[in-house]
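Much of what follows relies on a compact textual record of a protein's fold. A record is reproduced here so that you can trace the correspondence yourselves:

. . .
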Amino acid sequence: MHLGLIGGIGVAGTVAYYQRLTATIAAKSKPLELTIAHADVSTLIANTLGDNRNEQAAIYARLIDRLKAAGCDCAAITSLGGHFCYEETAALSALPLVSAIKPLDAYFMEKSLDTIGMLGTKVVLESRMFGQLARTRTVVPEADLSLVGQTYMDMARVNHCNDDQRAFFFEHGRQMIDSQGAKAVVLAGTDLGLAFDGFDPGYPVVDALDVHVDLLSRLVMGEVSLS
Protein backbone atom coordinates (compact mmCIF):
# COMPACT_ATOMS: atom_id res chain seq x y z
CA MET A 1 0.00 0.00 0.00
CA HIS A 2 1.27 3.44 -0.96
CA LEU A 3 0.81 5.76 2.01
CA GLY A 4 0.21 9.49 1.68
CA LEU A 5 0.88 11.95 4.50
CA ILE A 6 -0.13 15.59 4.82
CA GLY A 7 2.93 16.97 6.57
CA GLY A 8 4.49 20.21 7.69
CA ILE A 9 1.90 20.81 10.43
CA GLY A 10 4.31 21.02 12.19
CA VAL A 11 7.66 19.96 10.89
CA ALA A 12 8.76 18.09 14.04
CA GLY A 13 5.69 15.89 13.97
CA THR A 14 6.19 15.13 10.28
CA VAL A 15 9.81 14.17 10.85
CA ALA A 16 8.75 11.90 13.71
CA TYR A 17 6.18 10.17 11.48
CA TYR A 18 8.79 9.66 8.78
CA GLN A 19 11.44 8.34 11.16
CA ARG A 20 9.12 5.97 12.99
CA LEU A 21 7.40 4.66 9.88
CA THR A 22 10.67 3.94 8.10
CA ALA A 23 12.14 2.26 11.19
CA THR A 24 9.06 0.09 11.75
CA ILE A 25 8.82 -1.06 8.14
CA ALA A 26 12.59 -1.59 7.83
CA ALA A 27 12.54 -3.80 10.93
CA LYS A 28 10.23 -6.11 9.02
CA SER A 29 12.47 -6.02 5.93
CA LYS A 30 9.69 -4.59 3.79
CA PRO A 31 9.76 -1.68 1.35
CA LEU A 32 7.86 1.50 2.15
CA GLU A 33 5.93 3.45 -0.46
CA LEU A 34 5.39 6.90 1.02
CA THR A 35 4.65 10.35 -0.34
CA ILE A 36 4.40 13.51 1.80
CA ALA A 37 2.54 16.65 0.73
CA HIS A 38 3.56 19.79 2.61
CA ALA A 39 0.91 21.97 4.28
CA ASP A 40 1.51 25.35 5.91
CA VAL A 41 1.41 25.30 9.71
CA SER A 42 0.66 29.03 10.06
CA THR A 43 -2.39 28.67 7.82
CA LEU A 44 -3.55 25.64 9.80
CA ILE A 45 -3.17 27.51 13.09
CA ALA A 46 -5.14 30.50 11.79
CA ASN A 47 -7.92 28.28 10.45
CA THR A 48 -8.03 26.26 13.66
CA LEU A 49 -8.31 29.36 15.83
CA GLY A 50 -11.01 30.75 13.54
CA ASP A 51 -12.80 27.39 13.32
CA ASN A 52 -12.55 27.71 9.53
CA ARG A 53 -13.29 24.06 8.91
CA ASN A 54 -14.39 24.26 5.30
CA GLU A 55 -11.43 26.44 4.32
CA GLN A 56 -8.90 24.06 5.85
CA ALA A 57 -10.69 21.01 4.45
CA ALA A 58 -10.44 22.53 0.97
CA ILE A 59 -6.68 22.95 1.48
CA TYR A 60 -6.35 19.35 2.59
CA ALA A 61 -8.45 18.16 -0.35
CA ARG A 62 -6.09 19.82 -2.83
CA LEU A 63 -3.11 18.17 -1.14
CA ILE A 64 -4.87 14.80 -1.17
CA ASP A 65 -5.48 15.23 -4.89
CA ARG A 66 -1.69 15.53 -5.27
CA LEU A 67 -1.16 12.42 -3.16
CA LYS A 68 -3.63 10.48 -5.28
CA ALA A 69 -1.88 11.67 -8.45
CA ALA A 70 1.37 10.35 -6.94
CA GLY A 71 -0.21 6.91 -6.59
CA CYS A 72 -1.19 6.92 -2.92
CA ASP A 73 -3.91 4.54 -1.74
CA CYS A 74 -4.83 6.40 1.46
CA ALA A 75 -3.98 9.60 3.30
CA ALA A 76 -3.34 10.71 6.88
CA ILE A 77 -3.10 14.11 8.55
CA THR A 78 0.06 14.39 10.68
CA SER A 79 -1.50 16.70 13.26
CA LEU A 80 -4.10 15.93 15.90
CA GLY A 81 -5.10 19.59 16.02
CA GLY A 82 -5.36 19.35 12.25
CA HIS A 83 -8.20 16.86 12.71
CA PHE A 84 -10.57 19.70 13.70
CA CYS A 85 -12.03 19.50 10.18
CA TYR A 86 -11.69 15.74 9.76
CA GLU A 87 -15.31 15.09 8.76
CA GLU A 88 -15.31 18.01 6.31
CA THR A 89 -12.08 16.74 4.79
CA ALA A 90 -13.37 13.16 4.51
CA ALA A 91 -16.35 14.45 2.55
CA LEU A 92 -14.02 16.06 -0.01
CA SER A 93 -11.16 13.58 0.00
CA ALA A 94 -10.25 11.65 -3.13
CA LEU A 95 -8.62 9.02 -0.89
CA PRO A 96 -9.64 7.15 2.28
CA LEU A 97 -8.50 9.05 5.39
CA VAL A 98 -6.85 7.22 8.29
CA SER A 99 -7.70 9.04 11.52
CA ALA A 100 -5.08 9.55 14.22
CA ILE A 101 -7.76 9.85 16.90
CA LYS A 102 -10.21 7.01 16.40
CA PRO A 103 -7.60 4.24 16.98
CA LEU A 104 -6.84 5.68 20.44
CA ASP A 105 -10.11 4.41 21.94
CA ALA A 106 -9.22 0.79 21.22
CA TYR A 107 -5.65 1.32 22.42
CA PHE A 108 -6.73 2.81 25.74
CA MET A 109 -9.21 0.01 26.35
CA GLU A 110 -6.62 -2.64 25.50
CA LYS A 111 -4.23 -1.09 28.03
CA SER A 112 -7.01 -0.68 30.69
CA LEU A 113 -6.54 3.09 30.68
CA ASP A 114 -10.08 4.20 31.47
CA THR A 115 -9.16 7.81 32.30
CA ILE A 116 -6.66 9.78 30.24
CA GLY A 117 -5.17 13.22 30.75
CA MET A 118 -4.67 15.28 27.62
CA LEU A 119 -2.05 17.78 26.48
CA GLY A 120 -2.31 19.61 23.17
CA THR A 121 -3.80 22.63 21.48
CA LYS A 122 -6.72 24.56 22.97
CA VAL A 123 -9.18 23.23 20.41
CA VAL A 124 -8.08 19.63 20.99
CA LEU A 125 -8.46 20.03 24.74
CA GLU A 126 -11.77 21.89 24.68
CA SER A 127 -13.33 19.45 22.23
CA ARG A 128 -11.80 16.39 23.95
CA MET A 129 -10.29 15.39 20.60
CA PHE A 130 -13.32 16.58 18.65
CA GLY A 131 -15.61 14.06 20.32
CA GLN A 132 -13.95 11.17 18.46
CA LEU A 133 -13.12 9.30 21.68
CA ALA A 134 -16.33 7.42 22.39
CA ARG A 135 -15.26 5.03 25.15
CA THR A 136 -12.52 6.84 27.06
CA ARG A 137 -12.96 9.31 29.90
CA THR A 138 -10.70 12.31 29.38
CA VAL A 139 -9.52 15.09 31.65
CA VAL A 140 -7.69 18.29 30.72
CA PRO A 141 -5.43 20.66 32.69
CA GLU A 142 -7.22 22.80 35.25
CA ALA A 143 -5.14 25.78 34.07
CA ASP A 144 -6.23 28.29 31.46
CA LEU A 145 -6.51 26.18 28.30
CA SER A 146 -5.65 29.21 26.18
CA LEU A 147 -2.28 29.34 27.92
CA VAL A 148 -1.71 25.61 27.45
CA GLY A 149 -2.61 25.88 23.78
CA GLN A 150 -0.48 28.98 23.22
CA THR A 151 2.51 27.30 24.84
CA TYR A 152 2.05 24.39 22.46
CA MET A 153 1.71 26.68 19.43
CA ASP A 154 4.80 28.67 20.40
CA MET A 155 6.80 25.45 20.58
CA ALA A 156 5.42 24.07 17.30
CA ARG A 157 6.08 27.27 15.34
CA VAL A 158 9.81 27.29 16.11
CA ASN A 159 10.24 23.49 16.14
CA HIS A 160 11.95 23.65 19.54
CA CYS A 161 10.95 23.18 23.20
CA ASN A 162 12.79 25.24 25.80
CA ASP A 163 13.25 24.23 29.44
CA ASP A 164 10.42 26.43 30.72
CA GLN A 165 7.96 25.00 28.20
CA ARG A 166 9.01 21.45 29.04
CA ALA A 167 8.55 22.10 32.76
CA PHE A 168 5.13 23.63 32.02
CA PHE A 169 3.91 20.53 30.16
CA PHE A 170 5.39 18.13 32.69
CA GLU A 171 3.73 19.93 35.60
CA HIS A 172 0.28 20.02 34.02
CA GLY A 173 0.58 16.35 33.14
CA ARG A 174 1.50 15.59 36.75
CA GLN A 175 -1.50 17.54 38.02
CA MET A 176 -3.90 15.45 35.94
CA ILE A 177 -2.35 12.25 37.31
CA ASP A 178 -2.30 13.39 40.93
CA SER A 179 -5.57 15.33 41.16
CA GLN A 180 -7.90 14.19 38.39
CA GLY A 181 -7.53 10.43 38.32
CA ALA A 182 -5.72 10.13 34.98
CA LYS A 183 -3.98 6.77 34.54
CA ALA A 184 -1.70 8.22 31.86
CA VAL A 185 -1.21 11.40 29.86
CA VAL A 186 -1.73 11.30 26.12
CA LEU A 187 0.37 13.59 23.96
CA ALA A 188 -2.54 14.85 21.87
CA GLY A 189 -0.30 17.00 19.73
CA THR A 190 2.26 15.53 17.36
CA ASP A 191 4.86 18.20 18.24
CA LEU A 192 4.83 17.32 21.94
CA GLY A 193 7.65 14.89 21.27
CA LEU A 194 9.82 18.01 21.32
CA ALA A 195 9.06 18.25 25.04
CA PHE A 196 8.82 14.59 26.06
CA ASP A 197 11.10 12.50 23.81
CA GLY A 198 14.15 11.40 25.76
CA PHE A 199 12.77 12.67 29.08
CA ASP A 200 10.96 10.92 31.93
CA PRO A 201 8.23 13.12 33.43
CA GLY A 202 7.66 10.60 36.23
CA TYR A 203 4.27 9.29 35.05
CA PRO A 204 2.95 7.13 32.18
CA VAL A 205 2.77 8.87 28.80
CA VAL A 206 1.09 7.70 25.60
CA ASP A 207 2.24 9.36 22.39
CA ALA A 208 -0.78 9.46 20.07
CA LEU A 209 1.67 9.66 17.17
CA ASP A 210 2.98 6.18 18.02
CA VAL A 211 -0.53 4.70 18.00
CA HIS A 212 -1.20 6.26 14.59
CA VAL A 213 2.15 5.11 13.19
CA ASP A 214 1.44 1.57 14.38
CA LEU A 215 -1.87 1.53 12.50
CA LEU A 216 -0.34 3.07 9.37
CA SER A 217 2.49 0.53 9.46
CA ARG A 218 0.05 -2.36 9.70
CA LEU A 219 -1.90 -0.94 6.76
CA VAL A 220 1.29 -0.71 4.70
CA MET A 221 2.16 -4.29 5.68
CA GLY A 222 -1.28 -5.55 4.72
CA GLU A 223 -1.93 -6.74 8.28
CA VAL A 224 -5.16 -4.71 8.45
CA SER A 225 -7.38 -3.26 5.77
CA LEU A 226 -8.98 0.11 5.23
CA SER A 227 -12.48 0.24 6.70
Observations:
- The radius of gyration is 17 Å.
- The chain has a mean pLDDT of 95.
